[in-house]
């Protein structure tokens, strides 16, 4: 893929029940999700399709994965110029490796890693000649915002800036710490290049991790649909700077995600 080093290029839902998750997200977000696995053998994997392009994949957690401690959740892929070099760099910066650099035929090379605070994600170099549009700030059905809650914001930023060249682009104070906007290196000063933010977690018992916000046309309708289909909204929709409205939720299988829509 031709996205710059440090860009978000793919998103993945891990779920123990593919058909239940398929029905939930198709109704809530409007995706079309493959009914059958696209993998010829081995793990079940389905593609998530927005109206204008692919957004990510859905990995079915089998019995062995669940026995090994895998849980429902969303993970993001950061595109890099060289997977092996990035893995060595992140290890030197205090990160860890869960799956070493591995080739996927006709797809690319990836590794599953974690930052020094234990937050998992993937790094990948895709083999497609086209750029990924999985992240699209204003694209309906796409990820519109990437948000990290961490146990150590300064150490977390030092890690990501070292490995991916991410830069701060201003921020706003929260009662529990700075909400720092993030952009890729040399992206410019326009706020349109800001793709997310990071902040300290509010309470010591709160989990750390990335939350990915998917854009929908109507936040109230999506909020009602989440509840109707067995998900759990964490709050009512709330307005954020810029005029969008958002809320977090947990899907019926336990994966946390965010939704965002115009005011």
What would your notes on this structure say?
This protein is of the alpha+beta class and 263 residues long. It is built from five helices and 17 strands. The mean pLDDT is 95.
Q: What's the layout of helices and strands?
A:
Blueprint: E1 7-15, H1 18-29, E2 32-33, E3 45-50, E4 53-60, H2 63-67, E5 73-79, H3 83-92, E6 96-104, E7 108-114, E8 120-126, E9 143-150, H4 153-164, E10 167-174, E11 177-183, E12 196-200, E13 209-215, H5 219-228, E14 232-233, E15 238-239, E16 245-250, E17 256-261
Parallel strand pairs: 1-4, 5-8, 9-12, 13-17
Antiparallel strand pairs: 1-5, 2-3, 3-4, 6-7, 7-8, 9-13, 10-11, 11-12, 14-16, 15-16, 16-17
Helix pairs in contact: 1-5
In short:
This protein is of the alpha+beta class and 263 residues long.
- Along the chain, the helix and strand elements come as EHEEEHEHEEEEHEEEEHEEEE
Morphology: globular
Number of helices, counting only DSSP H or I runs of 4 residues or more: 5
- Share of residues in helices: 10-25%
Average pLDDT reading? 95
Residues in β-strands, percent: 35-45%
Largest sheet: 9 strands, mixed
Q: Give the number of DSSP strands.
A: 17
Radius of gyration: 17 Å
What separation lies between the terminal Cα atoms? Answer: 33 Å
Classify the secondary structure makeup into a structural class. Answer: alpha+beta
Uncertain spans: none
């Amino acid at each position: 893929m031709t996205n710059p080093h440090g860009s978000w290029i793919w998103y993945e839902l891990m779920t123990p029940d593919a058909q239940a998750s398929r029905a939930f997200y198709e109704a809530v977000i409007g995706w079309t999700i493959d009914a059958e696995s696209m993998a010829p053998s081995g793990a079940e994997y389905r593609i998530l399709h927005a109206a204008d392009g692919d957004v990510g994949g859905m990995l079915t957690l089998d019995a062995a994965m669940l026995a090994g401690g895998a849980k429902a959740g969303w993970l993001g892929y950061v595109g890099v110029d060289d997977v092996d070099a990035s893995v060595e760099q992140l290890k030197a910066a205090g990160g860890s490796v869960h799956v070493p650099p591995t080739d996927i035929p006709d797809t690319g090379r990836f590794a599953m890693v974690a930052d020094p605070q234990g937050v998992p994600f993937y790094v990948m170099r895709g083999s497609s000649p086209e750029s990924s549009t999985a992240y699209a700030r204003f694209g309906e059905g796409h990820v519109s915002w990437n948000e990290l809650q961490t146990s150590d914001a300064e150490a977390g930023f030092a890690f990501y800036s070292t490995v991916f060249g991410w830069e701060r682009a201003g921020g706003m104070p929260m009662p529990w710490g700075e909400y720092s906007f993030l952009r890729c290196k040399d992206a410019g000063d326009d706020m349109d290049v800001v793709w997310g933010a990071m902040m300290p977690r509010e309470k010591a018992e709160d989990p750390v991790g990335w939350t990915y916000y998917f854009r929908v046309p109507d936040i109230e309708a999506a909020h009602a649909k989440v509840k109707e289909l067995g998900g759990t909204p964490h709050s009512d929709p709330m307005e954020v700077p810029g005029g969008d409205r958002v809320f977090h939720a947990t899907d019926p299988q336990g994966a946390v995600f965010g939704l965002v829509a115009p005011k």
